[in-house]
Write a structure and sequence with these properties.
By secondary structure, the protein is mainly α. It has one domain. Helices cover about 75% and strands about 0% of the residues. It is built from 6 helices and no strands. Helix 1 packs antiparallel against helix 3, helix 1 crosses helix 5 and helix 4 runs antiparallel to helix 5. The radius of gyration is 17 Å and the shape is globular. The relative contact order is 0.15.
Length: about 140
């Protein structure tokens, strides 16, 4: 039973990581200055665009690799709460014809909260590093 649970958790972790990584990468590739302008247009400080995109890229990579999954997921969950409340909530669950709804944001939020609560150790780089350090300290 535990193996199935861990296997399904690693699938969630990696897919969440890929999704955030791609979203952040696109922000940089398509011109972060456009995102800065959009942030300012909706009443947020423009510099936050750099932070959001960086958190998405770095956090996405960290999740894919399994580095600090719980902490990274908690940060990404906060990001999704902010995006939903500030940008998507007014458009409704499925959108309003003008823009997307918050259904994807909500799904990503739930995935992030699940990983933040439960962690994901299978195929996680931090577990490999920790196990290597434990072996070194026990053999000394």
């Amino acid at each position: 039973m535990l193996k199935k649970y861990e296997a399904s958790t690693v699938i969630l972790r990696v897919m969440l990581g890929i999704t955030f990584f791609v979203h952040g990468l696109v922000k940089f590739q398509e011109g972060i200055e456009n995102i800065v302008g959009w942030f300012e247009a909706i009443g947020l400080p423009g510099f936050l665009a750099y932070g959001v995109a960086s958190v998405e890229v770095i956090g996405g990579l960290a999740l894919i690799l399994g580095l600090g999954s719980r902490i990274v997921s908690a940060i990404l969950a906060l990001l999704m709460i902010g995006a939903t409340v500030k940008v998507k909530l007014a458009g409704g669950f499925l959108g309003d014809g003008q823009g997307a709804g918050y259904e994807l944001d909500l799904a990503l939020l739930v995935m992030a909260v699940f990983i933040a609560i439960n962690g994901s150790k299978m195929f996680a780089l931090d577990q490999i590093i920790l196990n290597g350090q434990k072996k070194e300290t026990t053999s000394i």
